Please model this.
Amino acid sequence: MLETLNESHSASDHPALVEIVKVTKIYPPDVVALRNVSLSAAKGELIFLTGPSGAGKTTLLKLLCRQEIPTKGLIEVDGNDLTTLSDNAIQNLRQRIGVAYQDFKLLPRLSVFQNIAMPMEVQFRSPRDIRNRVTELMEKLGIREKQHKPAGKLSRGEQQRVAIARAAANSPLLLLADEPTGNLDAATTGLVMALFQELNENGSTIIIATHDESIYQGTNHRKFELQQGELF
Amino acid sequence: MRFFLFIFTQTLRNIRHSWGVQLMTLFTVILSVLIFSFFYLIYSNMLQAGEKFGEELRLTVYLQSPLNPADQKEFKEKVAAFGKVDKINFITSEQAFQRLAKQLGNDRDVLADLDPAFLPFSAEIYPHKDISNLTRIKEFADYLKNLPGVQKVQYGQAWVERFSHFVKLLRFIVIISGTLLILTTMFMVSSTLRLTLYARQDELKVLRYLGATNSYIKGPVLIEGFALGLFGSSLGLGALFFLFQWIKNHFSSAGFLNLFELRFLPMTNSAIILLGSIMLCTLGSLLSIRRLLKR
Model:
């Protein structure tokens, strides 16, 4: 798995897709989640955000998909200043960002297939495209046999894979993964990282927030460590 | 095309997941349309009956003494000075006596020793449609009463007044029930859809995170409202039609209902009720989703 990631192509010569400049996020009343964070990610780059729980990794990912807005600083994704985007522009941008949430955010009553298909349905993709892509993802992540099962009835590891498949469904421009291997065994972690590798090779910029050293140790991708809201 | 396919699929999915509540709302819409259109049906039939009675309405003017042709012409001119009348028939005492005898049938013996002159000379006036409403008829009767030589004017005022009050009461019921039912329907549809949307709040949140546009979220809800209005009013009007047929078949020969021909709501009015319901329900669904999207 690590060897595969080592072979990932370098993106340093590509223009920046993500620009984070001196971003501070303070939750009321005075909880500082991020302090003066600056970071840049090129198109087609894979980045690891590491650090202990509560360091601000999830907050940074939330800022990147415009679930939160920064208290101070500038965030640009694909040239769009996220703090000034209109509602419609935010929705358009979100269609190009895939997010694998730490708490999955699946719809428990919908089936595995329906959950993974959602981002493609939102973009009105053809039923055949949806069927092919969802089937392909389910096979790659080893959840094909669960396709008709409601997501709420899956184990946490299976739910995590559904969340990752959903984030990858549209082959997004930017994929944000929050602790994507937190509930997975080593073999399944390999499947997930292979999928990320493939997406990355096809041009997706990927930011993975994790404290699982096994997935980034020995790779030549950039790693940033967050500690108490500050980036090192 | 694909957009509509997705919206339609999403709508069916939503309905399947909240069919119980949707069914309750559908019943509310059916009942609202049924109650309102039932009163409206009675009202429109009463109006129609009123028109028919108006056409047959006549005022009988009893005169103090018989009129010769010259006086009759003068009398006609005076009557016409108030407003247009369709015709005026003068009835002599003899003619009135014969009519009375005919009406008495086998009991005409009671008239045997009576002189026809005890019945006064009279004029039967058939007013034009323009003066067929109660206020105008009253004014007309008062005008006739004040003409020289007039003894008494009769037009079955008590009955006409009662009928007019009844139609007024029906109009009031239609307006009040219509307003209340419009408000109830809108409130019910909007509240029910809002409840189902609250139940789907997590889903809507996830859809927003996945980049769903407002039209993607609003579309199915609007179609739900539209479908509730369409099916609710169609079934409501259908139920009214069966009720109407049942009443017609069972009661049309009964005394009061035999006086006029029962008619179902005209096509235009049915279409207005149908379109109105669809509009109200769609508006109700729009209100519910707008409030939720603002949150």
About this structure: The longest helix of chain A spans residues 186-201. The two ends of chain A are 26 Å apart (CA to CA). Strands of chain A lie at 16-27, 31-42, 46-50, 72-77, 80-81, 97-100, 174-178, 205-209, 222-227, 230-231.
